[in-house]
Sequence to fold (1588 residues):
Amino acid sequence: MKRFRIDSTIIVLGILILSLIVGAILVGTVGRNFLSPGNIRDVLTGMSVLGLVAIGQTLVVLGASLDLSVTYVISLASLLGATIMNGNPANIPAAVAITLLVCAGIGLANGLIVTVLKVNGFIATLGTGLILQGILNTNFEGSAGAVPWEFQLIGATGVGPVPVSTIIMIALAVLVWFLLNRTRTGAHLYAVGGDPEIARLSGVRTRPPLIAAHVLCSVFAGLAGLLLASRLGVGSPTVGQQGGYALLSIAAVVLGGTLLMGGRGSIWGTVGGVAILAVVDSVMSVMQVNPFLKDVVRGVVIVAAVAVYSRRAIVRRRPRFGAGGTRTGGDDAAKAAEGEMAAAASQLADTTPVPEGGRA
Amino acid sequence: MNALRALVSPRGAVFLLLVVLLVAVTVLNPSFAEPGQLMRFIQRVAPIAIVAIGQYFVIIAGEFDLSQGSLITAQVIIAGNLVGQDDSRTVPVLLLMIVVGVAVGLVNGLITTLLKVPSFIVTLGMMLALLGGVMWWTGGAATGNPADSFREIGRGGIRDVPFLDFIPWAVFILIAWLALGIWITKLPLGKSLIAVGDNAVAVDYAGARRAWVTTRAFVISSLSASLSAVLLVGYAGVHPSVGRGYEFVAITAVVLGGVVLGGGRGWIVGAAAGAFALEALFMLLNIAGVPSTLRDAVQGVIIIAAVAYSAVAFRARRRRPREPVATPEPATTPEPAMTSTIHTEKIRGD
Amino acid sequence: MNATTTQPVLAVSGIRKSFFGVEVLKGIDFDVRPGEVHGLVGENGAGKSTLMKIIAGVQPADEGTVAYRGEEVRHAHPRQAMDAGIVTVFQEFTLLPERTVAQNVYLGREPRRAGFVDRKAMIGRTADLLSDLGVSFIDPQARVGSLTVAEQQIVEIVKALSFDAQVISMDEPTAALSDREVELLYAIIRRLTSRGVAVIYVSHRLKEIFDLCDRITILKDGALVSTDETADLTTDELVRRMVGRSIQSYFPDAVEGTTVGEPRLELENCGNAYVDGVSLTLRAGEIVGIAGLQGSGRTELVEGVFGIQAFTRGAMRIDGSPTNITSARSAVRAGLALVSEDRKAQGLALGQSVLDNALLVVRSVFPGRTAASRREVPGVLSSLEISSRGVDQEARFLSGGNQQKVVLAKWLLTQPQIVLFDEPTRGIDVGAKYAVYQLMRELAAQGKAVLMVSSELPEIIGMSDRIVVMHDGELVAELPAGSAEHEILGAATGAGGAR
Amino acid sequence: TTDPSVAPAESDSPEESAETTEWFDQELFDKQNEERGVEPQGPADQPYLQHINAEMVDTAEFASEGAEKACFANASISNPWRQTGWITMNEQLKSLQADGAISEMETRDAQDSDDTQIADIDYFISEGECDVFLISPNSTAAMTPAVERACETGKPVIVFDRGVNTDCYVSFIHPIGGFAWGIDTAEFLIDNLEEGDKVVALRILPGVDVLEHRWAAAEKLFDEAGIEAVDYFTGADPAEIKSIISDELAKGDVQGIWMDAGDGAVAAIEAFEDAGADYPVMTGEDEMSFLRKWKDTGLTGLAPVYSNFQWRTPLLAAQMVFAGTEVPKEWVLPQKPITEGELDQYLEANDGMPDGHYAKFGGEDLPGYPTVWQERQIP
Ligand SMILES: Nc1ncnc2c1ncn2[C@@H]1O[C@H](COP(=O)(O)OP(=O)(O)OP(=O)(O)O)[C@@H](O)[C@H]1O
Ligand SMILES: Nc1ncnc2c1ncn2[C@@H]1O[C@H](COP(=O)(O)OP(=O)(O)OP(=O)(O)O)[C@@H](O)[C@H]1O
Ligand SMILES: [Mg+2]
Ligand SMILES: [Mg+2]
Fold:
């Protein structure tokens, strides 16, 4: 009865496995082992920061918005975290709290500009990004602050070859998965991204979910900034731009099967998309590909991978004839139910007017 | 009075912004009001306005072109490396640049329409691949500026004109490109593009070759970027950072000009005016001596405010009664209708 | 029913509403009582949907009050109206294709346990609601986008039923339903009213209005004409009040001198993934009606002919010569036109002007003829009696009927030889319907071939020279003009006999 | 498990690594000012082997037989200066491979990202089987812990260009520095301008220490000399530079141009030409585009140098380390601006090189000269 549909997450997984296999072979040709601890750590480390950003970006994209300001939020967060910590482990909780609060505030501003002022997310966050850049340039000259050793451990330790930062990223992905699938906010976010007017007519208040998505996106960017601070040992006003996180995170989200128009997508797809990018990057680094050529390969891989399933992703109706058709493949339930419906109709019509229950 | 009303309307917001900015510039620096300075200003805006015009066609069709900036860089470097100091190569290289522009537009358009990859992603990939490719080819730096005859297009003009003093070629090129753009918007192609941005399915059901319609928008966009590159080679010279970020500047300009991201609504002249407003803003920041570190912040605030203004004003206008000129909806025909057949009287309330 | 004696549960008074300075509701007074079905009728653009939206809290009224259970309310968000117990089935679907049935039904008020969405409860309750209606063929976990339009309409109704509503407004709930499902809806409505729920019912199908309603309110041009007990109204009187004149006949006769000529379109064993074994001949001057149940494949048949889902099997001839139609473009070039079923999704670019929409096809396929066609536009529009504020009006702001006329104009301008109409009168008022019928007759008289898909049997019977019946993707019967309803239905249900 | 190589760094006291937001550093200023005047030691015809005020360290512990493997963590090759250097470095590698000193060099390019470079260094440590680490840090403070981890492997570490906040390396190679650049250029402009004249400073981007030091020194000197200086960030975009100068010229006269890198110098000069204004007194860089324009226009100029030949030195240092010869702990390379008198000589020497080439690239004796540089063949 349940209609089978190739989930885009499965396709992402397929592409990931393919790139792993091809990558392992290529890495093998230069006498390296793709699955060596050092390499696994390299790939997973590459995933952690972009993964955090992309998780947040997924929320915003699901709501049919975009966040181009993440790069600057990341830089600001790394600076705030590092300067507040200022080398003193006792400051860590305060630094993390303040940093994330500030980021949440930026996200709130983004969300309000998008929902209340009705500025398209692309332009709104481009604008807030510029504002943040101005603030960074005015207040910080170069790297600043100092991250105590205890906090650096987050970026530098691991369970076997798996960095703690990756574990944190995956744990947060689970949380977001929960948010999307088990909370009203998640359900409403899908609805608002799918069609805000339909959501409104269905009684959904359309602003809160999208504002929440923007707040969370900025908080995730803040977490990415803190993670970078932990890896760098200092805060840096350019660390966000260095990674090109805004566009790459959007690419990863779309690579993961989330519709850029919003309303459909999954967090695991995004994690898969991030993994594909990390694998490709790592393989190219081992192969010592010319850095300019790396960008060419990245561009081609992104487009090609999205092309694999984008044609499929278009909603199609079930065929009646041919393979998998309702006529040839079964699904006679609807026909069988015709009698049932008639019966129900007459039964309903016969019901004696007994008021059933009050309002709940 | 009427002009004033038009200015505060959402469609006119960009012109209002432009006027305000230019007045502010003139107040701070009266010499700007000299006609010669104005010409120089237009020369400076021309490359941005031209990419904005190209981006306009992509955006009204509901798509994005993020590859414009990289294409400009690539074309600038192509010009620098292939023309060299040899004047006779100017024309062949110009033709080659057109071919490259068309090719990039076709690839963007066909992958978007036939493979159904969102244009944001296609052109993002193109942005990475083009820039990486051309840097790889040239080892990161062009050989040098091309011959002066080539650069004359973007740098030169008619000198010693009475009153105006100097009219850069860029001014004519911009006017011609804008006129061409306006003309295209009146053609079936332009109308189809805006219809695609509005409702792509309806355009399919109307028998249009939608893939080809949309693809041509990308070609126009890429050609605009190429033309802009020709101007920039002259104006600025060859350097791998020429063109960087132009795609965002162009999109911002188009949106400032009242064009709706997502397609279906917007005026090409607004898009060009958006480019003028943006460049006037940069100039104001330069002239006002805003600290270099604060520039970006001021720019961000103004962009958000301007776009928010037209979004909010548009909503307000939807509610407000229209201007008195509007004809009231004619009452449904009282007679004779039902028995008669198709009649051909002139439509009312036209 | 003793509804007359009770106090109204909902009463609106003096409601005014303008768009762009044009008043579309001019001081409406209207009320519904518990347990009553209150019909709301009027021509296209009369303001019915606007009134419903004001009651539902979707749009604010400019003036006037809404009183609910005796108290004045001002619902600024649909949410507030819903919480109060006013639920609306809107004219347009309010379903998200990417979400499941259960997620759609409970959108906005997902059941929760310990703060989290209780998916089991949500699915279970949706399944209960569905099985309550005998609808076992809709899986609560299916994506709505994978359902047929009829199934979606049922989900839409189930969504309204999932509330404990005091007032349910239904804006053309049967537009996409076939008779069988309409009957089910009747039963649902009767059960609701028996519980004391008030129902506001908007439909252009006058039969339903008379079948169901206790009272009928008529709107015309945004003004209230009358509110009467159903028993006090006749169909003729109702129509006269709606359109401001009386109607002799619902279906115009064939234009004199119309002759059936040579075959224009011949299909031989055509088929694709959705239809199969279609053999059909359409002659010049002929109107052929296609009947069938929802989802029987009628739309898919015309879309096959028109090249949108091109046939992969069989042969097609136009005017005797073999033609291969692989895309809508080749269809238009071959002289076909398709007035599609869903004018908002497939017919119009809503943000564009009436003029641009009218020229959409010409521009797309015959760009060279654009200038000439532009000159014809005013004539064609006025021949269709479009009431709009001129050709520069955005299509979005036209009422449904006028939008349909713009779609017709768009096709007429291409001077088609074979015109396919898919549900041409869906959701348009009697006056406009008549104009569409008249247009079909005119086309036939000009020697064109007309194929009409319709879910309204009277329309099929009243207009067709020949009736073809579809069932589950195949043509199952061909009946002569004037066949009886039960004959058609028998074939359509695949039973081969009357129900 | 905690990565054993991550230990609390001793040098990581907050005062030291917490950089203040003030770039000017009197001590460094004085040091570099002094170094400008010192006659470098070493072979006169091989500036890339010269050093200033060097304190030599013994490297006997690293002495080894046969060819060794070098691992190079590069910050990026994203600007013409780094590209030119990278070409030179590769040619140097070829010659050392031919000599049998270096077997191979594995390179990871961080594409301007601190985070990537840290991962690159960690990858080298665990997978690279490196005999020597060459590191061109993307940024100073951020790369310090990773460099320390590399040092802990016991293999020699050679850092060049930008520095790190640790001295665990065997040698740190760099030209005199940003303050020296700032002093050279500012003094030149001050000498050629009057008090009250206006200088427009065209800077690439904020926050990069090498660049910030240049401006910090120059700004201080301008201030003391009563020269009015306004600064802009240009992103090295010539179109932006041209607009900025045009606006400045519309506001009033500009007598001097100061640049923190030669990129876009031509556009700045052209802006004066287009506006019909007199050429400014100007400092650019030893990039060919500037030298050529300087020659064409005959303006009063100076080309400060951030010695590009330093890209040869790390590999040569590695060779010395494996040979057990002593190397300077802090290897300060000479950094002498090109003056008007030397202009023709450098133009001639670099004839046929592309505009983005650097005159003092110092690779004239390497195998691929000159085609590899002329065609800018990047591996
Ligand atoms: N959002 C809107 N903006 C502008 N005009 C509108 C809007 N909504 C409706 N109108 C106009 O208000 C009038 C009434 O429209 P409404 O949809 O209420 O009619 P209706 O009676 O429901 O017609 P139909 O039977 O065709 O559905 C029409 O003239 C329509 O053009
Ligand atoms: N499985 C499906 N998923 C999505 N849409 C469907 C599906 N099946 C049918 N549809 C759409 O539903 C509509 C009705 O389908 P179909 O052609 O089968 O019925 P029909 O006989 O034309 O009925 P009607 O036109 O009265 O709705 C069509 O627009 C078709 O595209
Ligand atoms: Mg309606
Ligand atoms: Mg249909």
